[in-house]
Amino acid sequence: MSGYEAHFKVWRGDARGGGLEDFEVEVNEGEVVLDVIHRLQATQAPDLAVRWNCKAGKCGSCSAEINGRPRLMCMTRMSVFTPKETITVTPLRTFPVIRDLVTDVGYNYAKAREIPSFVPPPGLGPGEYRMFQEDVDRPQEFRKCIECFLCQDVCHVVRDHEDNKRAYAGPRFLMRAAELDMHPLDAAADAGLDRKRAAQEDHGLGYCNITKCCTEVCPEGIRITDNALIPLKERAVDRTYAPLVWLGSRIRRRSS
Ligand code: SF4
Ligand code: SF4
Ligand code: FES
Hints:
Largest sheet: 5 strands, mixed
Bound molecules: iron/sulfur cluster, FE2/S2 (inorganic) cluster
CATH architecture of the largest domain: Orthogonal Bundle
Number of domains: 2
Distance between the termini: 72 Å
Strand order of the largest sheet: 2-1-5-3-4
């Protein structure tokens, strides 16, 4: 299709408030939404704030809501819309607005810091780790995460309930907890850290009711719910209700 004029509504404002602004803007064949936002900056709105870096779906910076759906602007082709369609671009709703399309995603960095990192196995040096290939393959999917935080934005636990942010890490970081919990060489338990208990009690795993909205918006196609959150929930429940585990934890508690 050759060039045409599209009707865009773009949210403008800051922490004090704002609203949608209308633009008629040129669109050319092969362009993505980020191209059009850049054209707006170049022609009609030079002070329009937008965060981006790679324009290749890899840095995770250009997250926004396009017609109400969390998406990467650089990976949303204009060809998915009809030329007559109004395209609305708004900032991620779950995080505080800094200006225009730029939000403060600091909540995510705070949650990242709360997940204890990998604990190296004692007595093994670099190059001495040995794992089954299937244990290598399984978390590989989670490593594709580009930290765009679209899953964090869409998750209703925090999207509609600001109060839950304190207690809830969100899908991206519960996935991190799951990845570490399934790591066969992680020595967290030897160091007195129970990752399943921590996921439940410290990071709010129980808030997730497996609606799979996070999986639906993930631009990397990571099956967050099926492959990370549900298995972690199952293991956490096993730990709580397996009779020997229960007995062991009672004995440990008494002796301490
Ligand atoms: S599956 Fe869980 S983490 Fe994902 S969006 Fe639903 S409630 Fe949130
Ligand atoms: S899991 Fe997917 S949606 Fe969530 S931050 Fe990573 S890449 Fe983005
Ligand atoms: S600009 Fe890097 S993911 Fe869009």
